[in-house]
């Protein structure tokens, strides 16, 4: 069973930076696409950034130029470096593991970490 644990959230001022981490245990991390999502109060969960097993990345428009997703396959870790943070980045950030199996997709989520950006 895959377990994900996010860390690195907290309170930061407008324009500041945070680095989120997500540790995966179980599963086959090197074959999984890892994605950061976020959910602000009273809003739907939205994709922030994703990284494929071979390192290809994709970002939401709101994250382009400010956030960087990376992974360390040796440590089963995925990171989200967030720079120039804005109050609208305030949300709970979730890590998702997704891997194609023979007949289905295996999908797992972490419990989330709170990011609060003060103006």
Task: Walk me through what this model shows.
The protein is mainly β and 119 residues long. Helix content is 0%, strand content 55%.
Which tags fit this structure?
single chain, 119 residues, mainly beta, 7-stranded mixed sheet, 11 strands
The N- to C-terminal Cα distance equals 40 Å
SSE ordering: EEEEEEEEEEE
Count of DSSP E strands? 11
Provide a count of the helices: 0
Biggest pleated-sheet summary? 7 strands, mixed
Give the overall average pLDDT.
97
Unreliable runs: none
Rg calculated over all Cα atoms: 14 Å
Write a short abstract of this structure.
The protein is mainly beta and 119 residues long. It contains no helices and eleven strands. Strands 2, 4, 5, 6, 9, 10 and 11 form a seven-stranded mixed sheet that branches. Strands 1-3-8-7 form a four-stranded antiparallel sheet, with no helix packed on it.
Topology:
Elements lengths: L2 E5 L2 E4 L4 E8 L7 E7 L6 E6 L5 E3 L7 E6 L4 E6 L8 E10 L4 E5 L3 E6 L1
Parallel strand pairs: 2-11
Antiparallel strand pairs: 1-3, 3-8, 4-5, 4-9, 5-6, 7-8, 9-10, 9-11
């Amino acid at each position: 069973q895959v377990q994900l644990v996010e860390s690195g959230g907290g309170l930061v001022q407008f324009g500041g930076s945070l680095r989120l981490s997500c540790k995966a245990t179980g599963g086959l991390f090197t074959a999984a696409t890892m994605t950061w999502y976020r959910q602000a109060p009273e809003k739907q969960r939205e994709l922030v950034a994703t990284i494929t097993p071979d390192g290809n990345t994709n970002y939401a428009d709101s994250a382009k130029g400010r956030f960087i997703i990376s992974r360390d396959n040796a440590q089963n870790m995925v990171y989200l470096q967030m720079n120039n943070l804005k109050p609208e980045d305030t949300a709970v950030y979730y890590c998702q593991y997704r891997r194609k199996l023979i007949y289905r997709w295996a999908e797992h989520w972490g419990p989330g970490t709170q990011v609060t950006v003060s103006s």
